[in-house]
Structure formats: structure tokens, C-alpha cells
Amino acid sequence: MEEMAASAREDGARGQKQGRRGCKHYDRGCLLKAPCCDKLYTCRLCHDNNEDHQLDRFKVKEVQCINCEKIQHAQQTCEECSTLFGEYYCSICHLFDKDKKQYHCENCGICRIGPKEDFFHCLKCNLCLAMNLQGKHKCIENVSRQNCPICLEDIHTSRVVAHVLPCGHLLHRTCYEEMLKEGYRCPLCMHSALDMTRYWRQLDDEVAQTPMPSEYQNMTVDAYVFIDF
């Protein structure tokens, strides 16, 4: 455990030279004591990348200060040397980080990056969405509990922002941007991932402004539809 803690502190020292503390995931002044294996890691992601099991953030009880190395109950400030572990601290998720206007959403069950007033929780989608989508998105029940159809990784607890497609399905924002380089259809339902209304209106206007050749005016044809059972 001491070797792992030393490694985590070295990561923190490198981070301080770069103007931050902690690891590449979070800016914080403490290490989490994993309740599953009693090892010390800067964050749950660092733990999960190095172990064969996952750290349950909600069960974290103790942290170690990166300055005085005192192990203590999870809290925002070190009880020994007064080091601030995080500008933001959630006592439920045990999230320590610099202030990014985070807030804990009780319905999501985790912390989100705000500001809180810019988001609302859709009870059917079971996800926090931007206020400009309120009443303007297609709801799919518990949509965020599905994995991203591009990378097949979790969306609900991901640190990557989710992008809501017009069809209601979710992708990681980064996966969505990569997808647009190859196509513009939802990989789940094949509906357009873009709002094509303006484009179709433009085509309609171009057709309306294009005169029909005289030889085709007033011409009609019979159309037949064959259905194979």
C-alpha cells in the first residue's frame, strides 16, 4: 500500500509542477483509501486502471493528506495541517476537485458539472440535460443507463459530456464528433443525427423555383407498389 501511495504522491508532485495537484483526472490534495483493497489512490479512475476490480466511490470512508500524510475521515480540509483537499467536495460521492460549478444530482445519484441552474433532470430519460432541451427533446426511458453505441462504454457516470441526438439516443460528445466524419445517422435507429429541416426546406425551395420543362407539363404516370408476402 505504501508503494502505491508513494506513486500517487509522485503523480501529485508532477501535477503541482504543472500548476495542479492530484492526478490527470482530478485536482485534489488527498488520496482515497479504497474500501475494497485498502490501497491509496488519487481517484477511483486511477484505482480502476490499476486493479482488477472497481472502487465504489460511495463507500469511501478515509483519505490521506498529500502534505502531512495523515489518514483521516473523508472531509474537505485536513484536520492536521489544514490542507484544502478540494475547492469542491461532495460528501456523498466523495468527489474532490477544483471548482467547476459542480452539483450533486439526487436523481442521477452522482455529481454533475454545472452550473446547476443551467440544467434540469428529465425523470423519464433519468438524466440531467441542458435547459434549452426542456420540452424539446425526445424522451427514452432510462436512456443514460445504456452504453454509448460507438465506444460501448458507460454514459451515465462518464466524465465525457453526453450528446442527445434528435431521435433521443445518447452518444459521448467525442464519439458523436468522430461519427460525423464518417456519416450522420444514429448507429442505433439509423435516423439522422442532425436536424435536416433547414436542408429539406432549401431543397423544396429549389424545386419550387425550377420550372417544369414544357414536354413534361401536365404529364401523369401510374405508380404501382408490389408487396411481397
TrEMBL record:
This is Ring finger and chy zinc finger domain containing. GO terms for biological process: protein ubiquitination; ubiquitin-dependent protein catabolic process. One of its GO terms (cellular component) is nucleus. Residues 148-189 form the RING-type domain. Keywords: Metal-binding, Zinc, Zinc-finger. InterPro entries: RCHY1_zinc-ribbon (IPR039512), Znf_CHY (IPR008913), Znf_CHY_sf (IPR037274), Znf_CTCHY (IPR017921), Znf_CTCHY_sf (IPR037275), Znf_RING (IPR001841), Znf_RING/FYVE/PHD (IPR013083). One of its GO terms (molecular function) is zinc ion binding. Residues 1-22 are annotated as: Disordered. It comes from the Eukaryota. Residues 16-83 form the CHY-type domain. Residues 85-147 form the CTCHY-type domain. PANTHER family: RING FINGER AND CHY ZINC FINGER DOMAIN-CONTAINING PROTEIN 1. SUPFAM superfamilies: CHY zinc finger-like, RING/U-box, Zinc hairpin stack.
